[in-house]
Amino acid sequence: MIKKRALISVSDKSGVGEFAKELASLGFEIISTGGTKKMLEEQGIPVIGVSDVTGFPEILEGRVKTLNPMIHGGLLAKQDDENHRKQLEEHGIDPIQIVCVNLYPFQQTIEKPDVTVEDAIENIDIGGPAMLRASAKNHDYITVVVDPADYRTVLEELKADGKTTLETRRRLAAKVFRHTAAYDALIAQYMTNLAQEETPEKLTVTYELKQSLRYGENPHQQAAFYQKPLGSKFSIAYAKQLHGKELSYNNINDADAALQIVKEFQEPAAVAVKHMNPCGVGTGETLLEAFEKAFSADTVSIFGGIIALNREVDVETAKKLHEIFLEIIIAPSFTEEALTVLTAKKNLRLLTISFDHGSKKEKKLTSIEGGLLVQDQDCFTLEDANITIPTKRQPTDEEWEALKLGWKVVKHVKSNAIVVSQKDMTIGIGAGQMNRVGAAEIALKQAGSKAEGAALASDAFFPMDDTVEAAAKAGITAIIQPGGSIRDADSIKKADEYGIAMVFTGVRHFKH
Questions:
Q1: Is the pLDDT of residue 7 over 90?
Q2: Which of 167, 285, 354, 418 would bridge with 439, disulfide CB 3.0–4.6 Å?
């Protein structure tokens, strides 16, 4: 009769004692290592040490313990193959039917702010992945468990039929390969960063399921939301939802867009977003003042929109927010009184995000059919720019404030993009147009009479002077743009003709 054996060696020990106890009661001999073995022994569960199986001690400070034919022969043998059985008998190897292994906490180790390279390297598991991969490959015969959530299923099937089903073994094997692939992806990312390689020949990334979504951009599209294991905590992926319906695919995209814009401001600020474009941005001495400006910037488009705020929401601001139909409100926190007001709307989603975390510079990944585009995030600010002023007139102090606000916002607007602004709010936004003057005409029309004395920001240079002409006729007195067109001289001349101060930054902000 074939001896029933289970090999258990885990870093995450939650539930493993009960699992091992149940396996022992079902007649399994338990093999274990190190801390797992000690814990099981303390719970009174009979355990055989790996060294007793291999006949070889753990060496190199535990780096080598399970990498042995006495273990891997038991994992990789085809247990119904006569030749394999004969070889096992010849070498005194017993087959293993259950493998319960999870890996050294590499992610938790490198998350520590004071982690050393040596500590990170020591937490790269070798034997664990080897056992998992061998067992998963041989899942026709071996049940391999990497997730404590699967203990109960395995035990129920063993009790019912003395073995697990092939369907379960195959599902668990697939989970193992995802687990080891994700583990190796984190190691690869760490080592690539350590080696300071910007464009490695292979890009390995891993994400963890945060939630399944009802559908994608449209009801006929399936979708899910994944979270980066070591991603920025100052992000929608790490937001806490306090109230309201489950987030949708479009909600998440819009919420991310709103958060990225509000991050630009240190003073109290409010950002309203619709379809991933801002429809209103305001700043003020108080959050209420900032929100009222963002709302007045476009009282139509904000309907059904997303609001991001960079201060705790007080009851006065909450009452104003309550008056409008909104999908989501994002803020660092809400007072109890504000929550009482806002949670009266059962479907309104309230999200909190810690603004104490600084932004973590991450690569931006954009999928295309059959491939992936990778680029740095656009973190360029006016402080980084090489500012020049080619016009005869310099901006006034108040115009500078309006220009700065417009420049902060325009880089978050879909190209071609134009933002018309005053010193503390947007008053017109033209987004996603096929030509620049078209975007300007939309923004200026929205601004109306408020454009008189306002500033205009463009995400890219003017290919000709028609945008300056349109801006001047609407009353714009200051413009900020990258410059760099072969026809810059025409735009400068037109600005001088109307007495407009124009600032060149030298950097564009395309957003597609």
A1: yes
A2: 418
| Annotation marks residue 275 as catalytic | yes
Which tokens belong to 37? 């073995």
The single-letter DSSP state of residue 388 is: B
Give the Å distances, CA to CA, from 497 to 306, 363, 391, 428, 492: 41, 43, 10, 24, 9
Q: Which of 13, 21, 84, 137 does the annotation list as catalytic?
A: 137
Contacts of 218 by beta carbon, 8 Å cutoff, 6+ apart: none
* In contact, 333 and 353? CB cutoff 8 Å: no
d(CA 18, CA 21): 5
3-class secondary structure for 409-470?
HHCCCCCCCEEEEECCEEEEEECCCCCHHHHHHHHHHHHHHHHCCCEEEECCCCCCCHHHHH
- Measured in residues, the chain has a length of 512
Q: Which of 275, 320, 445, 493 is catalytic?
A: 275
Token pair of 125, please? 């598991």
Whether 292 and 320 have beta carbons less than 8 Å apart is answered as: yes
C-alpha pair distances (Å), 508 with each of 147, 195, 364: 47, 31, 17
Tokens of 480: 């900020």
Average pLDDT over residues 375-396: 92
Active site residue 137: yes
* CA distance readout (Å), 404 to 184, 383, 456: 44, 10, 10
Is the pLDDT at 1 greater than 60? The verdict is: no
Question: Which of 357, 315, 349 has the alpha carbon at shortest distance from 334?
Answer: 315
- Bond preceding residue 416 cis, omega within 30 of 0: yes
Tell me the residue type at 316: E
Distances (CA, A) of 262 to 162, 256, 257, 331: 58, 10, 9, 10
Q: How much is the pLDDT for 52?
A: 82
